[in-house]
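Q: What does the predicted 3D structure of Putative oxidoreductase CatD look like?
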Amino acid sequence: MKNMEVGLLILRVVTGIIFLAHGADKLMNGMSASAASFGSMGMPDGTAPTVAVIEAVGGVLLILGVLTRVVAGLFAIIMLGAIVTVKWQQGLVGGFELDLILMAASIHLVLAGSRMLALKKRKKKKVF
């Protein structure tokens, strides 16, 4: 069981770092460029800042182990949206492979959680 928790910790932290980096990149390199890019893909106004904040703040929360399942669920939705609206036509290799593995990692964290070194640990429920 300890090996599983170590694996989940690694998955949680690395996934958090990747999303934090992508969100920070969007926020620090000017939202106008990200908004224009999202707009050219037919995304509604306000999508770029929303995604950037979810990625940046969510990345930090995931690294810290706070609201892991909720944040991972949001990440999975964002990745599904990216695959369906933008990356699908590019194909797997050189297209949506990163988005797909990030979506899979996020779904795994939704299903399994990650309690090791988490600031907010979900209490185990007693069966009886």
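A (community wiki): The structure tokens above were generated from the sequence. DSSP finds five helices and no strands in the chain. The mean pLDDT is 92.
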